[in-house]
Amino acid sequence: MTTDKLRSILFLSIALTVCFLSVPSFSVLADSNKTRPGLSPRTATDYIHAVIQADRKVYSHDIVARLGKLGLLNASENWKEENSLLLPAQFLLKSAELSNERGIGMRYYLTSLWPINKNNSPKSKNEITGLQEIARNPDAPFTWIVKEGNRWYYQAIYPDVATSESCVTCHNNHPHSPKKDFKVGDVMGGILINLPIGKQEKHAEPGKHQFPPEIISDYVHSVLESDREIYSKYIVDRLKNQNIIQSSENWWAEKSLPLPAQFLLNASRLVEKNKLGVHFRLISLWPINSKNGPANEFEHTGLETVETHPIRPYIGTSRIGQKDYFKAVYPDFAVTQGCVNCHNDSPESPKKDFKLNDVMGGIAVSLAMN
Ligand code: HEC
Ligand code: HEC
Q1: Looking at the structure, do residues 297 and 183 belong to the same domain, yes or no?
Q2: What's the 60 CA to ligand 1 centre distance in angstroms?
Q3: Of the residues 63, 76, 116, which should be mutated to test ligand 1's pocket, given the most ligand atoms within 8 Å of the CB?
Q4: Averaged pLDDT for residues 87-94
Q5: Neighbour count for residue 43 (Cβ, 10 Å)
Q6: What's 323's domain CATH number?
Q7: Is residue 301's pLDDT more than 80?
Q8: Potential cystine with 313: which of 51, 67, 276, 330 (Cβ 3.0-4.6 Å)?
Q9: Judgement on whether residues 74 and 196 belong to the same structural domain of the protein
Q10: Residue 189: nearest ligand to its CA?
Q11: Range of the structural domain that residue 317 is part of
């Protein structure tokens, strides 16, 4: 073979290699320009609202109403002085405050045209209109897009209905309530969810904006984390330290408080019943309850990954039948010595050497794409 021929073969193979190598990088570029599947703002707030509502129901039903009926413990406005349970509205407001303080983008509140607490008054003309609209038509949330400063926001307000006589009696008789004639079934206020959508004018075009599912999944996770933290801190730990009531695994039979994990689990079942397309689970590679082990390869790899790289969730997609799902596993940390002790001491726990701040498991969130 001549040097020339050799040179041209070499050139050709280099050229081919370059060509071959550049093909995938071109397609990566093209891919990032393609519009990725997203969630409509309405689907996004429906998912977030479903999770807020499920946690609220578990707290009202499994904790407040149940312990009240058993004559063990009541909820009251001055829970601190009276060593009682927080009112459901106070629980939601505290949890929202915690989530809003994280500065993740989403904010949510409880608001009303007839608030006992003036801080819960509507903050804008839009909010007043929204509250009036849901009072007239409680079957759907009222939504709008608004510019505040130089940024656009999508806002949705969902009705908060007087589901029991106790809501009505307490509000009607409260000295600070501006309305004294609430009836069961009335809309008493609303849950406002506020999502930033961006600075450009195009964000204001109705029907155009889509949220990346990983952002909505972060918001769902923030609600879950906040509710669990408020429940652990202000209900379980506080009442245990004051020797008022304990939490235990057999909470129903033992007339105690459900464990924080069980609080989340009960809410997860409620959300499941809605069949909206949002799901979550508390899982672990070392579960006390074997049902909380990873259900598939994705959850298994996700748990292993967040244990090694706890800074961000492990994400992926899957297709079940005709539906696409976005999935994420978030690390669940041993934030208190209580987590560590109870799990290490449990005869059912396959791991006995958890330490403070270890990743003990994960919260798996899955969202159906529209
Ligand atoms: C024992 C009394 C009591 C009961 C029962 C009660 N609430 Fe309230 N609610 C309050 C108080 C007090 C506040 C003000 C909390 C705060 O912001 O400090 C409040 C706040 C609210 C708010 C926010 C607006 C406002 O009034 O400040 C809404 C909406 C609301 N409650 C709805 C309900 C619904 C729905 C139920 C029943 C499922 C219910 N409440 C049960 C006492 C009660
Ligand atoms: C008083 C005991 C107790 C405490 C405290 C406790 N857990 Fe658990 N945990 C349990 C039990 C029991 C289960 C199983 C619940 C079920 O599914 O029936 C569980 C379930 C879990 C799971 C799901 C996997 C499994 O083990 O079944 C995770 C993850 C978890 N806990 C993390 C935590 C973290 C993080 C904390 C602290 C913030 C904590 N736990 C505090 C007893 C406890």
Answers
A1: no
A2: 12
A3: 116
A4: 95
A5: 21
A6: 3.30.450.290
A7: yes
A8: 330
A9: yes
A10: 1
A11: 277-370
